Predict the 3D structure of the following.
Amino acid sequence: MKKGGLSEVQDAFWELVDKSEAAAEKAEANYSAEQHKVWDLVANNLHSLWFLFVHPALLKAGEKMGMFSGNIPTVKSLDKILSAASGFHVYVCDGVLDFAVLAYGYSMGYFPTTLFIRTMAQLDYIETPDMVHERFGHLVALFLKAYANAVKQFGKIALNYLDHEECVKALDKIHWWGVEFPLVWHEGQIKVVGPGILSSPGEITHAVKASRHLDTGEQIQRITVTNENAFEVLMDIVKGPKHNIHIFQSKYLVFENFEVFEHTLTKTVVLVMQEIKKEGVVVPYDDPQ
């Protein structure tokens, strides 16, 4: 945690919230024709893929939120829709947030969005989160109450462990595979739920259909998570190598259903944190080569 403790984290968060409306309105008034075209191209590409590979509840959510209407939706309109659906609000940030600030926002029912959009050369994937990732990904997922409730509770849990370095490392790993890149079983098929996949045309098919990783040659792991094995799965993630943000993933968690997803991120996570503290677990956290 930062030197000033939780109060400093709170101050940083609320300062962002206070500046959000003005920052969004200024940026939205100056989007170029090419930026609108990028949004429209991504939207059309994603819409067709979502019909095939994304959980139907998320497809309906994206349509209700106006993601495929051809226009970049405003922060104000998204905040209104999202707050009515799941109680979450939207605020503006610039770049990747400190984990403590992000977690505090989660705990308060807020999710950040940047105001920049990828270029034509980055239509399939971008390492730095942009509005495509945050809006097609996180905000659509947060339309669902089960996902929103899990994320909010995950944030509250994280605040209790910000002074424990190994727990913070573990939470970051669990966040990556559990919040950013989850899949869910639906009617006998694996469907996309994770924001990191939802917003990436290339990773949607990779996550659901690929047998081997195109870059590394590794066999793709899709690990089904149930209430019975969730603790073991999360501990394996915590003790395993850190995720690689530069390429498509080679491992995915496939939750049995949304109830298991919510239970894992709100109940099992606490057991994992307790285990780390009790047993003095050292969490590997070196960036992949």
The chain has a mean pLDDT of 94. The chain is about 55% helix and 10% strand.
